[in-house]
Amino acid sequence: MHDRFFGPFRLFATILLFFGLSSTALAENLLRLATTTSTDNSGLLRAILPQFERQKGIRVQVIAVGTGKALKLAENGDVDVVLVHDRQAEDAFVAAGHGVGRRDVMYNDFVLVGPVSDPAQVRGRSDVLAAFRQIAAKGARFVSRGDDSGTERMELRYWQQIGIAARGAPWHVSAGLGMGEVLTMAGEMQAYALADRATYASYRSRTGLEILVQGDPRMFNPYGVIAVNPAKYPERNFAGATALIDWLTSAAGRAAIRSFRPDGEQLFFATADR
Asked: Please, how many CA atoms are within 13 Å of residue 159, restricted to the half-sphere of its CB?
C-alpha cells in the first residue's frame, strides 16, 4: 500500500529532478553574446568562436545589434556577455553596476569611405574632422548608421566637435541599419559613410566605395568585453562569460584574432599586440 501510494510520486520527483538538472546543464553550456554588427558582418566571430566552443564545450549564441542595443540587452539581463566598441559607454555601463570584469580585447580603425567621384573632394586627407566639415560644406550625401551603434556614436562625436548639427540636414541620411547594410546603401546612393575597416573590407567589392580618409588617431576603434553582473542577474551564465573573456584575452584567443585575415589582410589586432 505504501509503495503503491508513494511510488508514482517518487517517479514524478525523479523526472522533475532529471529535467531540472538537464535544463541547468543546458543553460551552463549556452552563452548569449550581444555584440556589434562589425564583429558579425566581418566574419570574425564565425571564424574564431568555433575554437572556443570546441575547447570549452560551450555553445555561443551571437546577437549582433550594435553597441547601444547590445549594452541595453545586457542591462536588462537578456544576455550573459557583451563585446562592443564605445569605451565611454562601456565604462558607464560598469560604473552603473550592470557589468563586471571589462577587458580590452582588440582594435582596428574607422575609415571614411565614399564614391570614386568624391564630390566633396576629401580623398587623401588625414584629418577626419576637416573631411567631415568639407562634406557638410558641399552638401554631399552622407549615410549614417542611425542605430545607436558604436560607429554612429563616433560619427556624432565628429559632427559635435566641428559644431555641425548633421541630423536632419537634407544631405544626411539616418538609415537605422547595420554596418553592412549602410555600406550597401551608400554604394547605391553614391554617398559617404563612416565604417569600421573590417566590415568595409568584407563589403568593398559589392559597393564600389573607396577608402578616402584614414589614419587619423581619432579614428582608433578599440573593442572591450564585459560580463553581465552576476550580483544583479544571478541566473545569467557568469561562468561561461568569464570563460569567454579569459579565452579572448589569452594567447589562444589573441592568435585566433590575429589569424583572421580574409584575402590576406589583417582586420583586427589583439590589444596585447599593440
From this structure: 19
